[in-house]
Amino acid sequence: MLTSFGLLGCSPAFTAAMGLMRRFAETSAHVLVQGETGTGKELVARAIHYLGERRYKPFVPVNCGALPDNLMENELFGHARGAFTDARESQRGLIGSAEGGTLFLDEIECLSLKGQVALLRFLQDGHYRQLGGHGDLRADVRIVAASNQDFSELVRNGQFRQDLYYRLAIMSVDLPPLRQRGNDILLLIDHFLARFAREYRRPVPVLDRASAAAALTHAWPGNVRELENIVHRQFLLAEEGVVHLEPISDSAAASGASEASGGWNIDFAGMDMKLAKAEVIARFERDYLEQAIAMTRGNVSLAAQHAGKERRAFGKLLKKYGIDRNRFQA
Q1: In terms of DSSP H, where are the helices of the chain?
Q2: Which helix (H) or strand (E) holds 172?
Q3: Tell me: the pLDDT tens digits for 192-209?
Q4: What is the CATH number of domain 179-328?
Q5: Is the pLDDT assigned to residue 21 strictly greater than 50?
Q6: What span, in angstroms and rounded, lies between the C-alpha atoms of 249 and 257?
Q7: Is 80 exceeded by the pLDDT of residue 261?
Q8: What confidence score (pLDDT) does residue 23 get?
Q9: CATH superfamily of 2-176
Q10: Which of 75, 82, 81 is nearest to 61 (CA)?
Q11: Could you tell me where in the chain the CATH 1.10.8.60 domains are found?
Q12: What is the mean pLDDT of the chain?
C-alpha cells in the first residue's frame, strides 16, 4: 500500500503518476521527479527505492540547495587523503555511502555546472573521481533527482545542462499540485485527522461542512505540506470534536507576502499558554519568511543572509511552512 509511504489519493492525475512510479520502481533506471513544493517528491523517491530491488540497501537523501558550491563535489564524491589541508583521511562521499542503493538529489537544479558535468559522467558509466584522487572509482547507485523548477527555462538560460536533463528525464514522474486533485483533498484531511488522533491519543474529530467546501476551492500553494500543517494546527485547536479550517479562506485571499501584515487575530480564550505561544511563533515565522523571500525575489541564499541564518536552516524553515520561493521570483 502506498499509504505506508504517505502517498494517498485516487484522482486520475495522482493515480497516473503513482502508476508510473510503480513501474519505474521495478527497474534500476535513474528517475526525475518533478512537482511544486509540498507535492511529496521525497515520498515518491523513497517509494521508488523501497518498492524496488534496492530496498535493503541505503537510501541517502541530500538537498543540493543546502550544499555550498565549494563543498558540493566533496560531499557528493568524497575526497582522497591529502586532497586539502585538513584531509587526513579519505572520505567516501554520498555516492560511496549509497553503494547498492539510491541517492536522492533534491533541488537538483542547485547543482553547480561543474557538479553537473561530474554527475553526468557518473550517470553514463557509473564512474566518478574523488576530490584529489588519481584514479576512477565505480559505484552501483541509482539516482533519483527532484525539482520544482521549469527545466526548459533553466536549460535555455544556461543554468542546467541539456544533456544532463535528457539523461535524467528518460524516466520522469510529474506530481500534480493539490488544487488539481479534487476530492483527494478531503481524503487527505481525513487521513491527517486520523493520524494526529493516534499521535495525541484523542478521538478522531470531524470536519465541518463549511471547511470542507473551503478546502476544495483553496489554491493550496504549499500543496500537501500546507494542508498537513493547517490540519495539524486546527486539530490541536478543535473543540467538541469538530475541526474548523476557516483560516484557509483568509490565506487564499492573501497568498502573497505583500499582504502578510501580522494581524493574526488569534483567539486565546481558553487556550493553553504553551499552545498559544507556539501558535504566535509559528505565524510570526511564516510571515517573516514570506516577507524575507519576497524582498529578495525568491533568492534563498540572500534571504538567509538577511535573516542571519545558514542557508540550509533557512531552507528547512521554508519547507516546514510550505513556502514556495518560485511564487516570489520576478
Answers
A1: 12-25, 41-50, 69-77, 93-97, 113-125, 151-156, 162-168, 184-200, 209-217, 223-237, 247-253, 273-295, 300-307, 311-320
A2: strand 172-174
A3: 999 999 999 999 999 998
A4: 1.10.8.60
A5: yes
A6: 16
A7: no
A8: 95
A9: P-loop containing nucleotide triphosphate hydrolases (3.40.50.300)
A10: 75
A11: 179-328
A12: 84
